[in-house]
Amino acid sequence: MRSQLATALAFLRNTWRGLTSMRTALVLLFLLALAALPGALIPQRSLNPGEVDKYFREYPNLAPVLDKIGAFEVFGSVWFASIYVLLFISLIGCLLPRCWQHYKALRAEPVRTPRNLARMPHHAETTVDSSVDEVVAAAHRRLKGWRKVEREEDDGSRSISAERGFLREVGNLVFHFALIGLLIGVAGGKFYGYEGQVIVMADGSEFCNAGTYNYDSFRAGLRVDGTQLDPFCVRVNDYHTRYLPTGQAVDFRADLQYQSGDDLQNDAWRPYLLQVNHPLRTAGDRVYLTGNGYAPKFTVTFPNGQRRTQVVQWQPVDPTTMLSQGATKFDPPGVQDERQRRQNQIAVTGLFAPTANYSGTLLSSGFPDLLDPTVAVDVLRGDLGLDSGRGQSIFSVDQSMVANGRLKRVARQNLRVGQEVRLDDGTTVHFDGVQRWVNLQISHDPFEAWVLFFAITIVFGIGTSLIIKRRRVWVRVRRHPEDSARTVVEVGGLARTDQAGYGEEFTRLAADLLGTQDDGSPQSSAVAAGARGRKN
Amino acid sequence: MPVNQTLATYSDMAYATSVVIYIAAMLLYFGEFAYGRARRAAPERESVLVGAGGGETTSKPAVGHVAEAPKRPLAERVGGMAVSMTVLGALVHLTSIVLRGLATGRAPWGNMYEFGSAICFAAVVAWTVVLFRQLRVGRRDATPSQLRGLGGFVMLPMIVLLFLSGTVLYAKAAPLQPALQSYWITIHVTAAVISSGALLFAGVASVLYLVRSRYENNPLKMAKVGSRLPTSQALDRLAYRTTVVTFPIWTFTIIAGAIWAEAAWGRFWGWDPKETCSFIAWVVYAAYLHARATSGWRGARAAWINIFGLAVMIFNLFFVNIVVAGLHSYAGLPGS
Ligand code: HEM
């Protein structure tokens, strides 16, 4: 029984040691890199669902297998999470003992001067005329800022051991801890954040962050139920895009007004020019301009003289020319009979081009700005299926209604602004003009500031850890064995980390400690030779 | 802001000129590399073998040689010319970049062409800095001529990159698209350019390290190239030091990118292919630094990790921007 327990404990201890070893960290880092790779190569559902569908069509055999193992949602997959969780456990297991060690190292005295300083990577020795006391005092002065201790040695010589660069390890620890902080901050955002999209007409229409039903789409964090959103409202008064003659957009600007906090009670509105790179930050939320488009305005005049006007956003299908497609749907007004109403619903579908450009009679768009707005419409009449209980896209009609003959095409025509098409029963569809709309994204992440804080800490931590060198220097001073008026000074140096760059510092230090001058040394003449060599 | 076409044309001309000068520099580097060896075969072999065992012993005789020789051997003069050509090329290249910036009235790294050009400039600067710093004896790991031997290998991938940027990826001077109009482009992309250029150099040093250490393990292998390179220890240190200095800059690049993305795209991190690839490269370089601190992983294995890191960087620059972006909404945003 005892021995079993001991075995189990030994197993646990070994597992823990294995997990927190540098080698494991290395392997886990590799695995993390490897596991992230498919995320860059295979389309991801969260980023681009359309591409995922396309992938399914192109590789019908492979795609389902990939889907099973989560290759389309790498960053939410179990295996990706298990790698980074292991990595972070390993990290914590590694950091705690290192903190303790470093604490002890900080309190420990610098190590004794090695007996044979000449064996050190850096070494220098000379004899000076000053007394031992003077030399030691000078060395203390020169080594100001170093952690040092002076010792009397058995043979009567005096030595100073000095150490520097403890901040390196501090930087390293700060860096690794900040990584953990960053991960926690990101996770917090996933729990308590939300993100929603909404299309708003740029004609003074308003959006209020009152509930998720106001959104076209809404992604809630795990701990967000959508009932307690930060209250604020925006009103989109106008929208502009400026284009170069090539059709490249120069800027996107939406003229907003917004209200939050006390303004909601007082009904005060503040202006804001919403642009890409300049989100509106208010009430703890951020509002972004993420898209724009056109909404053609149609007026349908029914045979009985009644009119209905609708402005519905159409969807850009080509971002460079803003060719758009959509469906504007009408109910016949004043029709009580349900069956009759359903036979006379009208949908205006087709293409919209901000600048008409024909290939034959086929409409396409030549330019993204509103130079010659034209629609190519199919007018459908019949049952739109709006009452079927099935959700429908606002950008298209229910094709099954067309397929089973309950929705029929009754006209097809190109219309410029002001033109109309007349149907067989006398109904007219008039193309009145175009309204712009914007797509807004509203984001909320209460942990964002923490993530930023840890990110900055990471940069400073790693910078400190990589720039500062941990180094030691020892000075040994003793009376000259033959000439008691003179003193022998010996200096040795060692960089605990990569030796790079310590040589120069040591050379300067040694020159000062030994009182030798710099310019006569072989080194400076070699530099001069090098310089000469470069010139000719 | 309208584009000044005259300046843009001068910029293109300077670009082409700098490529020609770099090619000349590369040929001169390789010239010294090939020719210098044949004349001084015996003594160098000796010093090489000493160097392989004991580290930094190779430099002293060569210094004396430079200072005392009444007339420098042809190979060394060729090497000196190579360095001059590199500096000249860099100046012309800089002119091209500055003119492009003036022509468009913005930071000149708003598309793939400009980004590639700037990275190569950073690589040349990294190379020149290493070259001149190493000439200071206190830091010397290799003789100047051994060091110059690296020049051709640094110039070669760079010229390829410049050529691709100037042809396949070339884009006419134009204002930035809205998402790129931010002061973050200066901060984030400058950091990206510096890190990519420096890591390109570090990767080349690691490749040469592998060649050299094969040669040191068995002088019959890779003898042609290996014997002329600096010691493996020196190459390893070059690669390590460059990576160590660059890693914080690359970390900063990614963080600056995230801060920018927060303003431009509505989230600071979204696992977009570019972000993912940068993250992977970062993790690989972190692995490299860990490997250098793990016994059994120093040396060849660490060098392979560094090379893998460079491969990811290059993949990120080309494949993600051109192929993957072709499918994604990201297409219009090269270099971000
Ligand atoms: C989340 C993943 C990690 C990242 C991104 C990371 C990154 C880094 C970086 C960039 C360095 C370089 C500092 C230097 O060269 O001095 C470093 C050093 C170090 N890391 Fe990590 N690390 C991670 C996880 C770990 C883990 C899990 C351990 C423990 C097993 C660990 C232990 C160390 C140690 C001991 C050093 C110092 C090496 C030296 O003195 O050169 N790291 N880390």
What can be said about this structure in brief?
The complex is a heterodimer of chains A (about 525) and B (about 325). By secondary structure, chain A is an alpha+beta fold.
Q: Provide mean pLDDT of chain B, rounded.
A: 80
Structural class of chain A: alpha+beta
Largest sheet of chain A: 7 strands, antiparallel
Q: What value does the Rg of chain A take, in angstroms?
A: 38 Å
Pick out the low-confidence regions of chain A: 518-536
Low confidence ranges of chain B: 38-69, 326-336
Q: How many individual helices of chain A? A: 13
Kindly state the percentage of residues in helix of chain A: 25-40%
Main pleated sheet of chain B: none
Radius of gyration of chain B: 21 Å
Morphology call of chain B? flat
Q: Tell me which protein chains meet in the greatest interface and how many residues each side has.
A: A-B, 66 and 65 residues
Structure annotation, total helices of chain B? 12
Q: What share of the residues of chain B lie within helices? A: over 70%
Q: H/E element string of chain B? A: HHHHHHHHHHHH
End-to-end CA span of chain B = 21 Å
What structural category characterises the helix and strand content of chain B? mainly alpha
Whole-number mean pLDDT of chain A: 87
Q: What is the β-strand count of chain A? A: 23
> Strand fraction band of chain B?
under 5%
Indicate the topology.
The complex is a heterodimer of chains A (about 525) and B (about 325).
Chain A: H1 2-19, H2 22-41, H3 49-58, H4 62-68, H5 78-107, E1 122-128, H6 132-142, E2 147-152, E3 158-164, H7 166-192, E4 194-201, E5 205-208, E6 217-220, E7 232-243, E8 249-260, H8 262-266, E9 270-275, E10 280-282, E11 285-301, E12 307-311, E13 315-318, E14 323-330, H9 338-343, E15 345-353, E16 356-359, E17 362-365, E18 374-382, H10 399-403, E19 407-416, E20 420-422, E21 428-444, H11 448-467, E22 471-479, E23 487-495, H12 502-514, H13 522-535
Antiparallel strand pairs in A: 1-23, 2-3, 3-22, 4-6, 4-21, 5-7, 7-8, 8-9, 10-11, 11-12, 11-21, 13-14, 14-15, 15-18, 16-17, 18-19, 20-21, 22-23
Helix pairs in contact in A: 2-5, 5-7, 7-11
Chain B: H1 5-39, H2 41-54, H3 59-68, H4 74-104, H5 112-134, H6 144-148, H7 151-166, H8 184-217, H9 223-226, H10 232-264, H11 273-292, H12 300-327
Helix pairs in contact in B: 1-4, 1-7, 4-5, 5-7, 5-8, 8-10, 8-12, 10-11, 11-12
The complex binds protoporphyrin IX containing FE.
